[in-house]
Amino acid sequence: MTSVLTPLPVLLPLLGAAGALLVGRHPRTQRTLSILVLTAVLAVSVALLLLADENGAEAVSVGGWPVPLGIVLVVDRLSALMLVVASTVALGVLVFAVGQGSADGDEETPLSIFHPTFLVLIAGVSNAFLAGDLFNLYVGFEILLTASYVLLTLGGSAPRIRAGITYIVVSLLSSLLFLAAIALVYASTGTVNMAQLAVRLAELPEGTQLLLQSMLLIAFCIKAAVFPLSAWLPDSYPTAPAPVTAVFAGLLTKVGVYAVIRTQTLLFPSGALDDVLMWAALATMVIGILGAVAQTDIRRILSFTLVSHIGYMVFGIALGTTAGMAGAVFYVAHHIAIQTTLFLVAGLVERQGGSTSVDRLGGLARSAPLLALLFFVPAMNLAGIPPLSGFIGKLGLLEAGVDEGSWPAMVLVGGGVLTSLLTLVAISRVWTRAFWRPAAAEPAADTARAAASDAGPDTTPDTTPDTTPEPAPEPVGVAAANGAASPAPSAGRGRRTRAAARERAWARHTAVATATTPSEDGFGDGSRGRRPGPEQPLPGVMLGATMAMVAVTAALTVVAGPLYGYTDRAAADLWDRTPYLESVLGERNAP
Amino acid sequence: MTPTVVLPVVIGGLYAAGVYLLLDRSLTRVLLGFVLLGNATNLLLLSSGGVAGLAPILGVAEPEEMSDPLPQALVLTAIVITFGISAFLLAMIYRSWRLVRQEVVGIDEEDRRVAAREAMDADDLDPDDLDPDDRPAAHADSLHPGRTDTEHVDAALRRRHPGIASDDVDLPPTQRSRS
Fold it and tell me: Nearest CA to CA, how far is A489 from chain B (Å)?
């Protein structure tokens, strides 16, 4: 049973992608196909979860090759849980994207590339979760990264290309590091099969082990956005279309976390770098959340909280105890769902209010009470307000930290509480400004001038009433920059000139930052110019998908007891290692 | 069969050159750096199979004389991936050039705005903000050499108000169209 089901989460989306590409001219068929495929993946994942919980880990040799030679796919409790959460989230986001597509009126000129690429992304994610050898893990990473490059730069507008280049170069660097680490691992052990590695790596000299472990960890920490290696994330995520950002935020960093878990438990269980990871976790939590507090754009706030909360998972992993690992796995599941939901809600907020900057939004609680509710529940969940699942996850991690009892763990516990409070600060700023305060007199819009007006001191527009022509927000800032810059030489002197020059500079800055070309694809926020006004109701499908995701996050709270029991068993398996090794190598060969 | 010293030296050289190029702002150099790094990694992967031997085909060579086939298979996969991504990067660079007439790593404008919102502290010094004469040699070609009227004004402003960070009053010249 398992041997039939295991390859399906990789195969189905790949075949579905091929099919979706073939029917690219029939958007309706394409949508139905992708939704069907993802539903099937979700069903298979749930079946795998039940089987894995009942029978323990199972390995499948693809193509029937004998084990250390061929490619092995392994399902244990951890990977089955990750598969279920990932496919749930992917399905929710896909439905949201379909809703957004039909609401923006792209029935005529559909963006036929989105669905195939999205399915390939899911195939890569599943492959990474199932991979039983290091090189297959690398291939899984490459599949999902290549798909993510395409999704991040959909439409090819200037801000997306700018963000995409940063993202691609950083991802490439981490992939090359990973590949080099694989080469060194193979040179020193003669295998890339993870179960065999678990046995052979322990026989290596300590220095070699440390080198290999740190190379793998650095590569995975770049992908997971752990602090010193996290600067790429808030730069690149916020520019993408809402569904894309949502699925990236939910899944991609967590694949990195998953790889870190495998490295720390299966390959190098000695805990040599636990202290380093511990301090990295603290820095990730605190610095990430301080970044979130400083931001004014909802998507950027969420990106920074994403970085910050990765720290919780790394903390749980670095504790090196079963309780810590159980907390980390639970937190991963919770965080995938919650972060995706919040980014979807941010997409709805942008449609409703015309902006994602909290300085320009207002009165949403009155004008869209349902949206306010949809934001409020996951936001409180993210901040860890009892009794929601975020509170349970954080409580589990903090308890595990206190149980461990060493002084770095206690510092981390303090850092975790502080981060939780600061998350509440960042989130409640969004709530009070965008939702609670009265609406502004004029409708908000992301124009360059509006953005400039909430820039810095000395830049209020009223100091220069008529010298600056309104910069057109339309073509990628170049024209805006031109128009704003031309009257500069003739402007007056002294303070007035300085303020005027500053304001023009900000207008140009923000024109580049906020303006996007009206997109030909009709997809995502490339369509800033022709977004429906605040009076129009939000499209039902998008609202429904978001409501379903909010329901999923709430359901995580309801099933938190059984789920925590499951993650406990998963963590015990991870530290025990025997189930994994026996499933791959057979009971005789396992040590 | 003795191990060769050539491969490690070549790998080291490629890594050094690749990292140097990757640190540049010009995207073409970044791409070249990535290609060099990818080749260095592929060679490393290839050399991880041990010393070279005969082709690993049964009947052609004895098993103990064969070279290890697995790294070769891995390298093939890695080469394909590197190739595909290089092509994609090239397309991105071309798109960037079409859109904003620049092919350097961009600046996160929103980040700068947020950084300047509370206190007007200077951002990291950006080569694009410097006078063309002061720029590192590698950047001379990726930027526009001509000084326009606005640049004179900006320079004058900078002299008059030395305390203000350059990016408050001055955009990187690359964002300005040449018109």
Answer: 6
State the pLDDT at residue A384: 85
- Torsion of the alpha carbons at A548, A550, A552 and A554, rounded to the nearest 10: -140
* CB burial string B50-66: b at 16+ within 10 A, e below: eeebeebeeeeeeeeeb
Q: What is the pLDDT of residue A529?
A: 40
The CA–CA distances, whole Å, from A523 to A111, A121, A455 equal 7, 18, 29
Give the phi and the psi of residue A225 in degrees, each rounded to 5.
60, 55
DSSP assignment of A186-223: HHHHS--BHHHHHHHGGGS-HHHHHHHHHHHHHHHHHH
Give CA separation, A415 vs A315, A426, B159, in Å: 10, 16, 45
Length of chain A: 591
ipTM over 0.85: no
B47: chain A residues, CB-CB within 8 Å: 183, 187
**Dist. CA A80–CA A92, nearest whole Å:** 19
Give the tens place of pLDDT for each residue, A289-298.
998 888 888 8
pTM exceeding the 0.95 threshold for the entire prediction: no
pLDDT digits (tens, 9 = 90+) for A184-209: 999 899 888 888 888 888 888 989 99
Taking residues A293-321, what's their average pLDDT? 90
- Burial bucket for residue B119 (CB in 10 Å: 0-12, 13-18, 19+): exposed
Residue B2: C-alpha distances to residues A12, A183, B45, B63, B65 (Å) = 48, 20, 18, 18, 13
* pLDDT tens track for B63-75: 778 888 888 889 9
- Which B positions 64-103 lie with beta carbon below 8 A of chain A? 70-71, 74, 77-78, 81, 84-85, 88-89, 92, 95-96, 99-101
Name chain A contacts of B120, Cβ cutoff 8 Å.
456-457
The tokens describing A393, both together, are 């996850």
In this prediction, residues A423-444 reach a mean pLDDT of 77
Whether the upstream peptide bond of residue A387 has omega within 30° of 0, thus cis, is yes
DSSP-derived 3-state class of residue A58: strand
Report B:105-144 residues touching A (Cβ under 8 A).
105-114, 116-118, 120
Q: Which residue of B has its CA nearest to A177?
A: B41
**Chain B residues lying within 8 Å of A307, measured CB to CB:** none
Q: Are A24 and A30 in contact (CB under 8 A)?
A: yes
Q: In the block, which residue shows the tokens 């002061």?
A: B134
Could B113 and A481 be called an inter-chain contact, meaning their C-beta atoms sit closer than 8 Å? Answer: no
Chain A residues within an 8 Å CB radius of B77: 135, 139
Q: Which of A150, A183, A512 shows the shortest C-beta gap to B109?
A: A512
